[in-house]
Amino acid sequence: MLRDDEREAWRGFLAAAPEFVGDAIGSAVDGPDPPDILCVTRSGKKIGVELTKWVEHGQVASGKARESFEDSYLDIIASANHARPGRIGWVWLHPKSRRVKPEDVPQFREELYEFLARENGLSDPEWEHPQGAPVQDFIGFPVLASYLESLWLFPRRRLEFLLVGENWIGFEGASGAYTPSWMVQAAVDRILAKVERYEDQNLHVLHALDELHLVCHYCDEALLYNTPARTPGFEFAAVASRVADVLADDHGVFNRIFLFNPYDARKVLQVYPVRVGKQASLQKRGTGVS
């Protein structure tokens, strides 16, 4: 049975996007969990809907989502155990909003240090200026390109000496407050947790579903304790676009995945699959989905 907060989220989502499957919902009841809701469309399709909160209160209040995400990279890289290239002082990571898959860990680490060695050997790199500079041309390093937006490199003269056991590859402002990027990561973490959880449960067959969808809903805890999903210069649509980039290859068993933000004018954005033409036609039909 749905909890009160889940029921409220479902009602809000359905009111905002009454035809989120491209057809009106004829009936909806609490599901066997999973999925949370079982629907039948007016055309007779059986639809399962799973709900997940965008951010858990505990993650928001303590910053565990950010810390966990950063630590997942720092543990893989373990730069304290690697000698710095001669001209590099330190490196800031700017990853995409996704964790490195276990099967990619060895190649990611190998490519990272090979890439930094190559940068160290350049004759006049931009990052040798005191303020450093970003590098993002990962051609020839496919695993890095899959997980990193960029690296910000600083020259050795900015940091000649390191303490024993100190990392020289890390994150900018690691102890700072949440930023919209971490709201992206929070959504991605929640969605991918559901993807992993239901990967082998065969819910389509078990419950005779025509489709199975996931709704990641922005909750009151996130509104009270975290950076809003819409901030000046970083709109809800931009958050959704970043999430969609990750889910293009990591959607699992779900036929469609939505973000629901009841505090935004657009409210519902489909982040998988993303088809511009299809989205436009859905809006014209008044589904409420962008």
Provide a short characterization of the protein structure.
The radius of gyration is 22 Å and the shape is elongated. It has 290 residues and is of the alpha/beta class.
Protein model, in words:
This protein has helices spanning 4-16, 57-62, 64-77, 105-120, 142-147, 180-197, 203-206, 220-225, 236-247, 276-284; strands spanning 25-30, 37-41, 46-53, 88-95, 133-135, 148-155, 169-170, 211-217, 256-260, 268-272. The chain is elongated, with a radius of gyration of 22 Å. The strands form two sheets. A six-stranded mixed sheet has the order 1-2-3-8-9-10. A four-stranded mixed sheet has the order 5-6-4-7. The protein has 290 residues and is of the alpha/beta class. Helix content is 36%, strand content 20%. It has ten helices and ten strands. The chain has two domains: 4-60 and 178-284, Hypothetical protein pa4535; 64-170, no CATH class.
Protein topology:
Elements: H1 4-16, E1 25-30, E2 37-41, E3 46-53, H2 57-62, H3 64-77, E4 88-95, H4 105-120, E5 133-135, H5 142-147, E6 148-155, E7 169-170, H6 180-197, H7 203-206, E8 211-217, H8 220-225, H9 236-247, E9 256-260, E10 268-272, H10 276-284
Parallel strand pairs: 3-8, 4-7, 8-9
Antiparallel strand pairs: 1-2, 2-3, 4-6, 5-6, 9-10
Q: What is the CATH T-level topology of the largest domain?
A: Hypothetical protein pa4535
- What structural class do the secondary elements suggest? alpha/beta
Report the radius of gyration as a whole number of Å.
22 Å
The CATH architecture name of the largest domain reads 3-Layer(aba) Sandwich
Q: Describe the strand arrangement of the main beta sheet, using strand numbers.
A: 1-2-3-8-9-10
| Strand segment tally | 10
Distance between the termini: 29 Å
Total of DSSP H or I helical runs spanning 4+ residues: 10
Please write the CATH class name of the largest domain.
Answer: Alpha Beta
Average predicted local confidence, pLDDT: 84
Percentage beta strand: 15-25%
Low-confidence stretches: 174-179, 277-285
DSSP helix fraction = 25-40%
Main sheet record: 6 strands, mixed
User: How are helices and strands ordered from N to C?
Assistant: HEEEHHEHEHEEHHEHHEEH
Structurally, how many domains make up the residues?
2
The gross shape turns out to be: elongated
